[in-house]
């Protein structure tokens, strides 16, 4: 074999990427994860079509998930409406630009669905306040149930007041940034749904690219900067809420981009490396995530991976 011809590397397994996105969806979702996954898969099946029996069976299961659930209150309809809306937008962008990267299509889908949802709430008086109250009530109820179970496991002994206070402050923070968390969970759910759709429809395990290749439009850094400006100007609760949600959503994307740069430069992590990362996220998540975010933002201007690729070519 000539020296200038390099063998094509064998593709890595794709399911760990889908599993990682599924974990992100579970960790950030304020809606039912099954709905955030079932809605997009159903939209993909209805729009792009399904032929294999396995894909048809999963589509039927997704339809059952979307139509079933608990009491059909306002949140029930909002959950399913959002899941189908973001899934439909993703399917439409996939039809329009099938060669585009997954991250580009997923970002466009979340942005498009968010714009349509914002327009709906803008013309529906009191709808947004009702949704926010319902989300906060759901989060509070879930935490209250978990804390009661914990107290029972302690033999009825009351939990420390400082712990109770910290938990409810966390709930308040989650309810304040639930649009950003929903955007992150929706992108993760789209990734899992897309991987499942490609896997079941064509047998291809590479529906998602490797993390080291993750990137998005560099101009989106101005969206992050705009969010910071809204936070600093303090023009009121509405603008501050918009600013903090923008910073949280874009910050998460830049943290993931930073992780991609680190993975590219290191050539991948060993099992021990993955254990260290998990421990870091458990023990000091703000430090780890902030560091990765700084690396990701820096990559906007430095384009580290292209520079390294040029030097090693």
- Count of helical stretches: 13
Strand composition percent: under 5%
How many distinct domains? 2
Main beta sheet, described?
none
* Shape summary: globular
**Portion of residues within helices:** over 70%
Which structural class do the helices and strands define?
mainly alpha
Kindly report the average pLDDT value.
84
Question: What's the β-strand tally?
Answer: 0
Provide the gyration radius in Å: 21 Å
The end-to-end span amounts to 18 Å
Explain how this protein is built:
- With 313 residues, this protein is mainly alpha-helical.
- It has two domains: 14-209, no CATH class; 212-313, no CATH class.
- It is 77% helix and 0% strand.
- It contains 13 helices and no strands.
- It has helices at residues 15-28, 33-48, 53-67, 74-96, 102-123, 127-153, 161-176, 178-202, 221-233, 237-266, 271-283, 285-302, 304-312.
- α11 (271-283) packs across α12.
How do you describe this structure in short?
The chain is an all-alpha fold and 313 residues long.
